[in-house]
Write a structure and sequence with these properties.
alpha+beta, SMI1/KNR4-like, 4-stranded antiparallel β-sheet, 9 strands
């Protein structure tokens, strides 16, 4: 069984092997990463950090991950996970230990729960629904981001390729 960083490495390879159905940014430098973690008040877990460093933000075969990035139009405003997490905290009272990484397509937010850190520094992946005040009530989707994201993307690519 691969660990969370190995799963992130596999995901990077998967994206590069499927460039025709993938999009990604230029990655995230150390200064931007530090600003993102400072804005959220939470460090990113290693497997999520690894992917943000590589891609910034990405999607493949319809699976979109928020990541961390800026755009010329928005200047130094941190978009993706940072903007969506801060928005969910302000608008919906999302607990401060959660970091939004994607949308579940049904109104929920897929998030990393920093209140439960494993020995490798990874956080479980959960679905948090607006209005739920306690992160303990969120459905757990995975034990760490890397394996969760790799599995999601692998399924999406397989499904996409089968319908071509």
């Amino acid at each position: 069984m691969m660990n969370a960083i190995q799963a992130s490495e596999q995901l990077i390879e998967l994206i590069h092997r499927n460039e025709d159905i993938a999009n990604y940014a230029d990655g995230c430098d150390a200064e931007t990463m530090a600003a993102a973690e400072d804005a959220l008040g939470i460090p990113f877990p290693p497997s999520y950090r690894y992917l943000i460093e590589e891609f910034g933000t990405w999607d493949i075969a319809g699976e979109e991950f928020l990541g961390v990035y800026t755009t010329p139009a928005m200047g130094s405003t941190l978009l993706g996970s940072v903007a969506e997490t801060l928005d969910a905290r302000n608008q919906y009272g999302m607990p401060p230990n959660l970091i939004v990484v994607m949308f579940d397509g049904m109104g929920g937010l897929v998030a990393l729960d920093s209140s439960h850190v494993d020995q490798q520094g990874e956080y479980p992946v959960v679905v948090w629904n607006p209005g739920v005040m306690h992160s303990e009530d969120a459905e757990r989707l995975g034990e760490a981001f890397g394996p969760f994201a790799y599995a999601q993307c692998q399924r999406a690519v397989t499904s996409w390729r089968e319908t071509e």
